[in-house]
Amino acid sequence: MKIMVIGGTGLIGSKLVTKLGEHGHEAVAAACSPRRRRQASATTSRSRWWGPSGC
């Protein structure tokens, strides 16, 4: 299942994205900060990151 996690690079959201990936889901995390997306991508392999323009 594809699931979008708002705040997917935050404290709770990052753990949720990891758990969803472990259970075979594709997590799409919405995040504004490119730096935090890069940090989170290093620890999560089954995720995609999305950030709206203008953040």
Unreliable residue stretches: none
Structural class: alpha/beta
SSE order: EHEHE
* Beta-strand fraction estimate: 25-35%
Estimated radius of gyration: 10 Å
Overall 3D form: globular
Number of domains: 1
What is the tally of helical segments? Answer: 2
The spatial strand order of the largest sheet comes to 1-2-3
Q: Average pLDDT value? A: 75
Helix content: 40-55%
The largest β sheet comes out as:
3 strands, parallel
| DSSP strand tally | 3
| Cα distance spanning the termini | 27 Å
Explain this structure.
α1 (11-22) links the parallel β1 (2-6) and β2. The N and C termini lie far apart (27 Å). Helix content is 40%, strand content 25%. With 55 residues, the chain is an alpha/beta fold. It has one domain. It has a three-stranded parallel sheet with strand order 1-2-3, with helices on one face. The mean pLDDT is 75. It is globular, with a radius of gyration of 10 Å. It contains two helices and three strands, in the order βαβαβ. The longest helix has 12 residues, at 11-22.
Short description:
The protein is of the alpha/beta class and 55 residues long. The protein has helices spanning 11-22, 34-43; strands at 2-6, 26-30, 47-50. The radius of gyration is 10 Å and the shape is globular.
Write the layout of secondary structure elements.
Layout: E1 2-6, H1 11-22, E2 26-30, H2 34-43, E3 47-50
Parallel strand pairs: 1-2, 2-3
Looking at this protein, list some descriptive labels.
55 residues; alpha/beta; 3-stranded parallel β-sheet; 2 helices; globular
